[in-house]
Amino acid sequence: MKIAVLYGGTSGEREVSLSTGKGIIQALKNKGHDVVGIDFSPEKISEILKLDVDMVFIGLHGRFGEDGRIQGLLDMVGLPYVGSGVLASALAMDKAKSKQIFSSKGILTARSESYDVTKRETFDSIQKHIETTFNLPFVIKPNQEGSTLGLTIVKEASQIRQGIETAAQSDSTILVEEYIGGREVTVPVVGQKGKEQALPVIEIIPKNDYYDFDSKYKPGGSEHIVPAHLDLPLTERLKEEAVLAHQLLGCEVYSRVDFIINENNEPIILEVNTLPGMTPTSLFPDSAQEVGWSYDDLIQKFVELSSSHK
Asked: Which residues are catalytic?
């Protein structure tokens, strides 16, 4: 097939996306496809409109890639693409909305509030509301941004204002949620609609205090334990809830669902990533390897699943 790979982008996760794109392009070539790589930015829309390919593989992360906008553009020009559609992408990116959907179906989420931060003059009242609503420690983060960018773990009241300012730089809505300490795990989900399966659960042990940008992407920043050392009932529950979360948002082909296991041994869902990191050393390929799929096989599988349902 002739496949265009979109990578790079303009979000805060550009560096990761460059690496994801490189991995996907090589894997597709190894599988015999004719590949066109495009370091995408909104200025290059005309290039997308003129594309003459069988399929588009989106290797973008964060804004303009993972939020449904590029998917909408591809839908309009009738270009099939790998992965989730417009609505699922937009919902997964909107943490506040997706959490409402999850809790309505009994998946545990951290208690949270969202605030509109488009006007600076509201910051004082937002700060007061946060102070009276949340007990320390808690988390302030942009509502729609990936890779823990703009995130602050507030341990002292004096950090609240800075936390609001930092998150507001990345988004017009911020999310404040209770901090849940515990074990960080993630569950890759793959398959056609209605027939999805969860791959082995991965536990992430970051070298830093929490799984921040450096832990995710710097060599040796974190240790991945695949499969995670968890008892069978908890493993099964994580897999079931990951598949359910994927289906509730209407995700397609693949996603990765992040959880924290709290002190009561309960999984608390954090978010669904519709375009998780896909470098050869990323979490998803690590888990796929456990069931005998090489990185190249995994990328090929995504293409096949997309061809059969788009």
From this structure: 13, 147, 217, 256, 258, 271, 273, 277
